[in-house]
Amino acid sequence: MTAHTPPTPPFRDPQLPFAKRIDDLLSRLTPEEKVSFLHQFAPAVERLGIAAFRTGQEALHGVAWMGPATVFPQAVGLGATWNTDLVRRIGEAVSKEVRAMRARDDRVGLNVWSPTVNLLRHPLWGRNEEGYSEDPRLTSAIATAYTHGLRGDHPTYWRTAPVLKHWLAHNNETGRDVTSSSVRPRVLHEYDLRAFRGCVEAGAVAGVMPAYNLVNGRPNHVSPYLREQLRTWTDEELLVCSDAGAPSNLVDSEHYFDTHEEATAAALMAGVDSFTDHGTDSSKIVARVEGALEQGLLTQADVDAAVRRQLSVRFRLGEFDPHYDPHAGTGEFDSPAHRTLAGEAAEQAIVLLRNDGVLPLAADTRIAVVGLLADECKLDWYSGTLLHRSTPLEGLYERFGAERVEFAEGVDRVLLKTSAGTFLKVPTAAEATDEVRGAEGALDPALLAGRTDLPPLTTDATGTEFALVDWGEGVLTLRAPDGRYLSVAEDGRLRASADQPGGWVVQETFRLEPRAKADGNTPGNTHGNGHLLLHLGTGRPVCVAADGVRVAGPDEENSEVVEVIVVESGEDAVTRVTAGADVVVVVAGNDPHINGRETEDRTTLRLPAHQERLLAAARAANARTVLALVSAYPYAIEPGPLSAVLWTAHGGQAAGTALARVLAGDVSPAGRLPQTWYAGDADLPDLLDYDVIGSRQTYLYFEGTPLFPFGHGLSYASFSYADLAVRIEDGTAHVSFTVTNTGDVTADEVAQLYTRAVDPSVTRPRRELLDHRRVTLAPGASTELSFGVPLSSFAFWDVAQGRWRLESGPYELLVGASSADVRLRTTVTLEGEPAAPRPVRRRGLAPADFDEQSGVEIVDRTKVSGDAVTPVAGGTGELVYRACDFGTGTTGVTVTVAGSGSVELSLDGGPVLATLTVDAPTPGPYDHVTVDAALTAAGVHDLRLGLRGPLRLAHVGFSG
Questions:
Q1: What is the DSSP letter of 9?
Q2: Catalytic residue among 135, 192, 243, 273
Q3: Would you give the end-to-end CA distance of the chain in angstroms?
Q4: Is the peptide bond before 115 cis (omega within 30 degrees of 0)?
Q5: Beta bridge partners of 845
Q6: 686 in active site
Q7: Which end of the chain is more exposed for a tag (fewer CB within 10 A), N or C?
Q8: Stretch 593-620: mean pLDDT, rounded?
Q9: β-bridge partners, 541
Q10: What is the DSSP letter of 652?
């Protein structure tokens, strides 16, 4: 007898289109198996030979959380390169390392959760480091380049499947899972959606991740925009992956739904396909989906639609065609090419903000390098573990020679004296291993435990001298002489055990606080020079026990009073090394795990006081002082007394070498600011004010004078611009001009093209980036740059018509080296559509489509879709709607409202013509009633609405 080989099922047939293969596989999966696929960790289906699959692999600027990998500059640093070709190559390198790492560790996933395309609207946002720019077009261009690199060039099979984060209007960590971003339609379309749309339409995106926050009163995980906007931009199946724990938040913190079954069903119906919740335990999500099916909240077709989208990604990744997958054998990891690329990226990310001629430094310059980040190579929450490391100090040693470089970190060297007169002591560890946090890799690094293999601190008569740093707002770190930071592990013991501050809950930060609350004394009583040493990770004070130093228990009263004895101040150390130097380089900035990170917004633009003192000491000792800021976000500084100022994001493994090469002139700096640097906190709107138009935010609308403008960055060369020409043809503005290197060194220039509507009918950007190009030019060389700008780029979202409209009229085209440094300009007149009044007599009025507002926020009309408006905190609010057409006449007005209060109507700033009052509060925010009143109006007028009290206005209609 001859054994027959079973036929190949259609889903295994690579000759069939993916859609038919997915249809076949769906038909073979049981309902229970399909439901199990909805969790982040989808199990294997052994009977069909289908492997387990998980969504989510962090890869923001290198492979993160899975151990050593090439570490590139932070995302905001990649944005500062303004170089899409470079960023595409970085995406390629990262995706190749993902593949190589997966080949030896199947925990590494191919569905990468990168990049972050949230706009850097507000510089105090804790996650500023994760975005590319405050400008939607620049963000979209950089993100598109990165996703193309991550995806790969094969027409069928993807190297990795990138998911964009975080949909939508997400720029605050303060109350991030309960706050609502009020986003008016113009801001929604012209700003927040634009960054996502361009990237999705470019065709290299596998999906998106909704953000924790709410938009217009509705959680992003049940956002109608997933269906109404995102899925209309492409014919590809997009996989929507929830953020971690967000599905549970719909009930637990947001209280938007009463039951988890309702919440899960609503999220699935809105478009969420994969639920990231409860870690690797899928049982709760599975039970919720099954409960929703049993209750009739979902159908099997709803589940199938979500599973189809996940399978679409898995097929594109080659999972079912291992012999045809061109990326299956990819093994490039930590290659010489990747190391070179990391160095190139770090160099291109450096921005020269100010230079009086001190830079570049001559080869024989004697340098004093000082500052808290001078000998650091900091990582952030989304970094991999370093394979290579270069600090500014190491880079300067290598470039100028150790004999020409003096160093002082600028920490305060202190002893911590107890109330008993003894000092805190780090005991000698018998055989301590040199562990690095995260080196082993972890699917969830938040679960990495602190070390307990080292002895806890004790006390003795001499103590240990600690390096104390105040990172701002009194948040301190304490480092032992061996370089380890004081940290608290799960057993509550205080040890010198951490290589760096880090972790989801940082266990290496402290605060010195008065003991008033503990001993009942009045605030400000500090027991003389004594303070409590409060451990911020646990919120508990440090105490000295017989078996070592630990944090006090919740009911303990034996908190230790410590006195800080300063052995040497940071300022003294700086003064000691700077006076004899030719130039002082102060390296200042932030630790990405402290005071500004995921879960924690900043409170000020100012440099921490400790670093301001070091900078002042350096200036006082040596007038030739260069400030190198290494930070995840902008600072407000006083640049006047400084010879030069540079900024770079945390630059990854090659950061120090790159900075040294720029300081030496081996490379001319050509990074450009991807966001406005404001002069001070007074220039900033409220963190939760998302109305970039109304509150004049970002370079697009800001009316003040910035410290440094968007797009700013200097060079060691000079460039001239000439020959601006514009031609309008076939719906495109063809713009060309010439750039010439008029300097004496080869350098990059970033040519920027902006526009401005000269006489707009509505508030438009003061200038708006259309395109840019980074070019390399030798001395004396010229190049002609050409741009084709679709005329749709000049349009705005017309709230009167509910669509994009190109307004007829003159537009300036501005060419230059930054948004403020304009070298060429011309004006073109574009033919578009004339303005039309709002047809309110015929269509009524959608209240969120206002032209101006004061004291109003947008909320959800229903839990599924639609907007309403309400006064902030139930107070009073004003709304203006320009050019409302009441036709030949109206005699009545009807408002659809919920809650309680009144609506006042007036025309053209005149007296109140109608007041509509809700006589009795409605049962809930979605229980709408209609209220009528007489209103006589004809022709075109500006309509003003006054909202009084806690009501939610959903619609205004006119009759007569």
A1: P
A2: 243
A3: 89
A4: yes
A5: 956
A6: no
A7: N
A8: 97
A9: 534
A10: G
